[in-house]
Write a structure and sequence with these properties.
6% strand; Rossmann fold; 4-stranded parallel sheet; 17 helices
Length: 309
């Protein structure tokens, strides 16, 4: 088993919780930054594993977020140990911060960083931060936090922030580090890349291809119901049952806010978008950026392919 060369820590996450995790043959690790399609991929994996829309438990129980400090590590390990089905585990940690076990498959979900950032901004309004502090054992802030600026102003600041990708994982540098590290591993037999825009463009095709890559057999007659259950509208309608969990969201339905591409580009002028492109050019390989940004040039991913292996 690989060692963990890099430790990623924030107020709510710690990749060191992966140390000593007992993998099983067939485990699936879903790795993505916040608001990049993690929950969507958890739902897809749940549907492929159970082959029915009637899931036996909320996603957070079926697919726990292992790095999250809200839940005690021992309890998360025990819950995963008790599972008899094929396990699918959530992480927001890059692949260079978790064990890479040959028995497991690693599904990396990517989204246009500007769209991810817009969703992140809105998610910030929907988090019960007092509840999160309570669950992670942190005291309340000494002074009330300053009000956040309007979305467009915040997004421009997010583009220019010079953040440490190992501590500010949802920053632009953190997001592109996460994807760049995985991109360098994309030829490995157990690493799969999925683009959010491809899920938007042709959900059924991507679910079928993922099932093939993960060697999961689904009866043909089951596909229509499974694809319908994985749609944005259906997941939003069932948000209370799907998300469950420790109650850190003010609204479960608001968690599924838009489910499309292009929201980030809409906020920027042409010059501001060109500045964004210049900024990211030095943060990630050119071929990754071409693949990652393509929906801004040709619609919401229509006609594109999932890249895997």
């Amino acid at each position: 088993m690989s060692t963990v060369p890099i430790r990623y820590q924030s107020a709510e996450e710690d990749s060191a919780r992966w140390s000593g995790f007992p993998f099983r043959e067939g485990d699936i690790v879903i790795s993505a930054r916040s608001k990049s399609g993690t929950t969507w991929m958890q739902m897809i994996c749940a549907l492929l594993v159970f082959r029915t829309p009637d899931l036996p438990a909320p996603l957070g129980e079926l697919s726990p977020w292992l790095d999250w400090l809200v839940a005690p590590r021992a309890g998360v390990f025990a819950r995963l140990e008790a599972q008899q089905h094929r396990r699918f585990i959530k992480t927001h940690t890059p692949l260079d911060g978790i064990p890479l076990d040959p028995r497991a498959s690693y599904v990396v979900v990517a989204r246009h960083p500007l769209d991810m950032a817009v969703s992140l901004y809105h998610q910030g309004e929907n988090l019960d931060r007092a509840r999160v502090r309570q669950l992670t054992g942190r005291p309340p802030p000494a002074t009330p936090p300053a009000p956040r600026p309007p979305l467009r102003e915040w997004l421009l600041g997010w583009i220019d922030e010079a953040a440490d990708p190992h501590q500010e994982m949802d920053s632009l540098p953190g997001t592109l580090h996460h994807l760049s590290d995985a991109w360098a591993r994309r030829s490995e037999p157990n690493v799969v890349f999925v683009h959010y825009a491809d899920l938007v463009a042709d959900l059924e095709a991507q679910m079928r291809r993922l099932a093939g890559l993960l060697e999961m057999t689904v009866p043909e007659q089951a596909w229509p119901a499974l694809v319908q259950a994985a749609t944005f509208e259906q997941m939003r309608a069932g948000a209370d049952q799907l998300l469950g969990g420790p109650g850190v969201l003010k609204s479960t339905a608001a968690f599924f806010r838009r489910g499309s591409s292009g929201a980030g580009r809409e906020q920027l002028t042409g010059a501001e978008f060109a500045h964004y492109e210049t900024r990211v050019a030095g943060m990630a390989p050119r071929d990754l950026l071409t693949w990652l940004h393509r929906e801004q040039r040709g619609g919401a991913g229509g006609g594109t392919q999932l890249i895997a292996r």
